[in-house]
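To whoever is on call:

I kicked off a structure prediction for a single chain this morning and the downstream step that reads the tokens threw a length-mismatch warning. I double-checked the sequence; it's 232 residues and nothing unusual in it as far as I can see. Pasting both halves so you can look.
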Amino acid sequence: MKQLQTLLLPFILLGLLSSYKPNQSCEYASSNVGYVKSEIEKAVAMTDLQLTRFHTYKAINAIEKSKKELDSCGCEYAIDNITLSSEHLKMATKTSTLASTAIFLNKALKETSDTLTSLKEHNTHKSSYGNDVLALNTVNLTNESEHGSYTPPTEELLKQKVDSSLASYRTSLDNIISTVNCREARAYADRIFEQCEQQLLKSNLSEGKKYYNLKTKEITAEAIEKLGECGK
């Protein structure tokens, strides 16, 4: 019996290390993302545009350096959120006023906070829908019974969840149009539109993501029409 335990010990240790590594990677990722969050907060607090950009670039660089830990952690919720944050941070560096910059920074700050929450709750995530849920960022698409069992959402329910989540996107986009310099707002809308087009060209895109990107593209197209040719 003792000999059997000795023979099995390396495999037991390997199993323990394998299960520990992702959690440790998530801890490293959380630490890095926490630094990103603090740099964004510093950027928001600045009253000088150059100092704002200085801290914004530090946050962007920190995200780039965190990709390895995020990939090792395997939390796709966190990866999606921090990717959105990075996009908004990059847009913040291209604006010409503090007011415009603040809009993108605050969006990035919210997404970075969501990233930290996702990392903290990584082990509790339950979803058979994979990227359909991730595409909707923090929207909950799962149905939980009173006993906690998972039931995949129907196609109709999925679309309702998408439409509900995109209502806030439409409001946010309208806010950008009304408060950000027209050229900058047009550049932002064009970028979102092009991203949706690229996503829709993918042959392996799930039905949830197809619908999400299609509706996002439609809402963004309406915004581009309102902005006109100011960015051209």
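Update from on-call: the warning came from a stale cache, not from the record. Cleared it. Sanity check on the structure: Residues 141 and 157 are 8 Å apart (CA to CA).
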